[in-house]
Design a protein that fits this description.
Layout lengths: L2 E2 H4 L6 E4 L5 E2 L2 E2 L10 E3 L12 H6 L4 E4 L12 E4 L3 H12 L8 E6 L4 H14 L4 E4 L3 E3 L4 E3 L7 H13 L4 E5 L2 H5 L10 E4 L14 H14 L5 E5 L2 H6 L7 E5 L6 E10 L37 E8 L6 H6 L12 H6 L2 E6 L4 H16 L4 H7 L11 E4 L4 E5 L4 H13 L5 E6 L6 H18 L2 E5 L13 H13 L7 E4 L2 H9 L7 E5 L7 H11 L9 H7 L2 H4 L28 H5 L8
Helix pairs in contact: 3-5, 4-11, 13-14, 14-15, 16-17, 17-18
Length: 614
């Protein structure tokens, strides 16, 4: 299908050279290797290479039009037009939006950004809107769901061509709303410049994140602020009332509703408590459905019980105080979104000030993610009753404080890659009944030494506080090159552990992830609790755990057997299988796994190629 070039270039500023513009082009490409005859090629500058350097390849492959920030370095072949634009990234965004007919203008679009919590908040809000009968698409790091088509997510925020294609599919599939993650890199690189946002959610803001991309914290915050400024004056912003509001509030054009735990939040989390469920899907004792929070000492009112046994499901109960009213801007834009039976009447919006919700999401960090998603749903017109009924049915996303095994021991898998996330996961562990606590932590590769030192220090502090046994791994061979742990990052984590009072032999260290998981399993028995913690380096952790349990060996002769492996959540265990040809051998009672490579392994790490994150 040929594309009208005049429509594609609408809104762009450029200086043309070479032959006259053709009336049509075959397609838009931003990767020279994908160019086919008759295409328009956009030479996007990258961190390591300028796309203009690949213009020659694009021309050899038959590109008819080239968009770049520089003038052509060599004489153009006949039949080629070169368009020099102020920003190739900005041009690509507008070209993509024009290519797919600006689909975001036909949807109510919610963008979610933040240092942590983007994925969970996005997926929960998608769940709430869908449960209310609103056809909603979602786009993020785990999944892209356009309504009738579902595929894995590859980038937190896709490049403009994929992004607007997904939005177009949502419109074609009958969606009326879209919820998407917005990363700092996506905002900084202009990937979302031509998305018509109606509501923005900022989960939080914290330093020491993406230092491999952002040279300073100020640069990182400014990238988040760029997204905040994209939400128009007739839209709305739900923003965490801490660091996010302090640093990003000045970028806001839309009305801001702050949320959080403190009095500065118009939407407040009053209290939270982990309570047992009488049966899967049921309500626990002391449900407190009237919104009454627990006492200040943490006890539940009306004789509610404490934490459930590890063999039973449990829930996190949250008590929220709602704003006295929501700014009307987003309500007007989303007036036809919620079915009439689900719309909040004006008197409900001012009178219903308390709300209690149960969630399967465990931990204080997820509590605020729930508050953010609930606030966005209410602002878009859902009733408190709809929200309270739908939240308990939301299952934690993969590796987001996910309970992947309950018998014979409990296993929680989380992407914790920051000090606050580590603290939250150990906070969950300390509130669950268990005998021994073991944590396997995968060092963050490709993120620099500062964050790894901070994580090591926090890990040591949490281990000393909870009495946990700690196993640390570089996940050598189990990450993409860009996420490989570098020697300085490994040593920074060990230095942080030492500063927190944790050094070998108090902490076991392994180069490879399967050896680390095997060493942990060798120490576990019935009633124990295992934490699998880390970002990309721990993605395969649950798969290795499944393989180890299938072999049926544990510490001191304990045999966990294939039933334990079968009890692992299949969606998690099957998601990232062990590397082909690798045999996982659990360790014995006397020590680490057979064949384990203890650290430091500077030589092995030095051979691991590094890389840049896209």
């Amino acid at each position: 299908m040929a594309l009208d070039l005049g429509q594609l270039l609408d809104g762009l500023t450029f200086v043309a050279s070479g032959d006259p513009l053709p009336a049509r082009v075959a397609e838009i490409r931003s990767h020279s290797a994908q160019v086919e005859p008759g295409d328009l090629f956009v030479a996007v500058p990258g961190r390591r290479h300028d796309g203009a350097a690949f213009a020659g390849e694009a021309l050899r492959r038959g590109a008819r039009v080239v968009v770049a920030e520089q003038a052509p370095a060599l004489p153009l072949p006949p039949g080629v037009t070169w368009l020099r634009a102020p920003s190739a990234r900005r041009a690509l965004s507008r070209l993509a939006a024009n290519r797919y007919g600006h689909p975001s203008r036909r949807l109510v679009v919610v963008g979610v950004t933040g240092t942590t919590g983007k994925t969970t908040t996005t997926l929960l809000l998608h769940h709430l809107l869908t449960a209310a009968g609103i056809a909603t698409g979602v786009m993020g790091s785990l999944v892209v769901d356009t309504g009738r088509r579902r595929r894995p997510g590859h980038l937190t925020t896709p490049d403009p061509l994929d992004l607007h294609r997904h939005l177009r599919e949502m419109v074609d599939d009958g969606c009326r709303a879209a919820v998407m993650e917005v990363s700092s890199q996506g905002a900084d690189q202009g990937r979302v410049d031509d998305v018509a946002f109606d509501l923005g959610v900022v989960t939080n803001l914290a330093p020491l994140e993406h230092l491999e991309y952002h040279p300073t914290y100020e640069h990182y915050a400014a990238a988040k602020g760029r997204f905040v400024a994209m939400v128009p004056a007739d839209g709305g912003l739900l923003m965490h009332a801490g660091e996010a509001a302090l640093r990003l509030g000045r970028f806001a054009r839309a009305p801001v509703v702050p949320f959080g735990r403190g009095p500065q939040g118009a939407l407040r989390l009053l209290a939270e408590a982990m309570v047992p469920l009488a049966e899967p899907g049921g309500h626990g004792a002391g449900a407190c459905r009237d919104g009454t929070p627990p006492r200040r000492d943490g006890a539940l009112p009306h004789g509610a019980q404490g934490p459930a046994p590890a063999s039973l499901p449990w829930t996190n109960r949250l008590w929220l105080e709602l704003p006295s009213g929501w700014p009307s801007s987003v309500r007007r834009r989303a007036a036809d979104l919620a079915p009439p039976a689900g719309r909040v009447r004006p008197e409900e919006g001012t009178a219903a000030r308390r709300l209690a919700v149960d969630t399967q999401l465990l931990g204080s960090h997820h509590a605020l993610n729930v508050v953010a998603a609930v606030g966005a749903a209410l602002w878009l017109g859902l009733s408190p009753q709809q929200v309270a009924q739908a939240v308990p049915r939301f299952r934690p996303p993969r590796r987001r404080t996910e309970v992947v095994l309950r018998e014979p021991f409990t296993v929680i898998d989380d992407t914790a890659g920051r000090p606050d996330s580590l603290a939250a996961c150990f906070g969950v562990a300390s509130r669950l009944p268990h005998r021994r606590l073991v944590a396997v932590y995968a060092v963050r590769g490709g993120r620099g030494e500062a964050i790894n030192y901070a994580n090591g220090l926090q890990l040591a502090c949490e281990a000393r506080r909870t009495g946990a046994e700690v196993v640390v791994t570089a996940s050598h061979g189990d990450t993409a090159p860009r996420d490989a742990v570098q020697p300085g990052e490994w040593e920074a984590c060990l230095a942080g552990l030492a500063a927190g009072g944790l050094e070998p032999p108090q902490v076991l260290t392994f180069a490879r992830l399967p050896d680390a998981v095997a060493a942990a399993v060798a120490r576990l028995g019935a009633g124990d609790l295992l934490l699998l913690l880390g970002a990309q380096g721990m993605d395969a952790g649950a798969a290795y755990l499944r393989a180890i349990l299938a072999e049926g060996r544990g510490a001191d002769g304990r045999r966990h057997g294939p039933d334990a492996a079968a009890a692992l959540d299949g969606s998690v265990a099957e998601a990232v299988p062990p590397a082909a040809g690798r045999r996982v051998v659990p360790g014995g009672a006397a020590g680490p796994a057979r064949g384990a490579v203890t650290m430091p392994a500077r030589q092995a790490l030095a051979r691991t190629p590094g890389g840049d994150r896209p």
